[in-house]
Design brief:
Elements lengths: L10 E4 L6 H31 L6 H18 L2 H8 L5 E3 H34 L4 H4 L2 H27 L8 E2 L6 H7 L5 H34 L4 H9 L2 H18 L8 H25 L1 H13 L1
Parallel strand pairs: 1-3
Antiparallel strand pairs: 1-2
Helix pairs in contact: 1-2, 1-3, 1-11, 2-4, 2-11, 4-6, 4-8, 4-10, 6-8, 8-9, 8-10, 10-11
Length: 307
């Protein structure tokens, strides 16, 4: 518990930046390029799925929502980061910090659950094709997507309420590019035992359970594909899963490095792991699905020819 002479900080200093001006300019240009590719590309993906009848299937319905989540998650951090690269005072108000905590945790969990839903969709398509239209009906797809957002919203609200109940009276320096829960917990002058429990529990329940759904689904999918005698059939079934599997590996790999590793001071590796997870991953998701997904490429070619 903090004493009665505690003066709550009104803003946090973001010190996850290099002090070298040339490096700052290079990073600014890299972040700007990443932002433009992510925003314009995911908007384009959403529009393409909406206007292409051949993409009006459960898999692309989920992909459209994934593009929306990536679009939202990138715009919660990158604009502020770009502004800070050009500013001498790299700080964020207390209220803005809480907003970042909420949005990062909202869209982070939503994306994890969506990826699990997409794995389940691929499992049903490969292993139970005859019941696929019934199992993945429009009503069922809507309910699964709604569940993803509800779980993300619940996590975002819970983590934000917990962070807002902490006191910050001494140091206000965050060694990252944005307000991360682990950094805030380490700065707090309150008893953070409950906060650590909430963070680890949420990461374990939501992150590990979602990843288990993905793992079990792909074990069943790979077993089913290996049992197919035709090499062409194996290639066709596996090609529908490669884009999603690549995205899953990137998302969960960086997530576990961020939230399930042992507590430690923010090192240079920690900083770049956070950047990879929050800034680069949304762009990679887009590139993976646009370059490796046959349905998306065919729809894009058809759309260009029509125009």
């Amino acid at each position: 518990m903090t004493g009665s002479n505690c003066t709550q900080v009104t803003e946090f200093s973001l010190m996850g930046y290099t002090e070298d001006p040339v490096t700052q300019v290079i990073l600014f240009l890299m972040f700007l390029l990443s932002s433009l590719v992510t925003i314009l590309g995911n908007l384009g993906m959403i529009v393409l799925i909406r206007v292409s009848p051949q993409l009006h299937t459960p898999m692309y319905y989920f992909l459209g929502n994934l593009a929306f989540v990536d679009l939202c998650s990138s715009t919660t951090i990158i604009p502020k980061t770009l502004a800070d690269f050009m500013s001498e005072k790299k700080s964020i108000a207390y209220a803005g910090c809480m907003v970042q905590v909420f949005t990062v945790d909202l869209f982070g969990v939503t994306e994890g659950v969506l990826l699990a839903v997409m794995a389940y969709d691929r499992y049903v398509a490969v292993c139970h094709l005859l019941v696929y239209p019934l199992a993945m009906s429009p009503e069922c797809c809507f309910q699964l997507v709604t569940l993803s957002y509800i779980m993300g919203l619940t996590n975002g609200m819970g983590q934000t309420i917990d962070m807002s109940n902490l006191s910050f009276c001494s140091s206000s320096i965050i060694s990252l590019l944005f307000c991360d829960i682990s950094s805030l917990i380490s700065l707090s002058t309150s008893d953070t035992t409950l906060s650590h429990v909430i963070l680890r529990t949420a990461a374990s329940l939501l992150g590990v359970s979602s990843s288990l759904v993905v793992l079990v689904s792909y074990v069943a999918i790979i077993s089913a594909i290996l049992s197919i005698s035709s090499a062409k059939g194996k290639s066709k079934d596996f090609s529908t899963c490669t884009s999603h599997l690549t995205t899953v590996n990137i998302f969960y790999g960086t997530s576990f490095l961020m939230y399930l590793k042992p507590s430690s001071d923010s090192s240079k590796e920690d900083k770049w792991t956070v950047v990879l997870h929050t800034v680069v991953t949304p762009m990679l998701n887009l590139l993976i699905y646009s370059l490796r997904n046959k349905g998306v490429k065919e729809a894009l070619n058809r759309f260009i020819k029509i125009k």
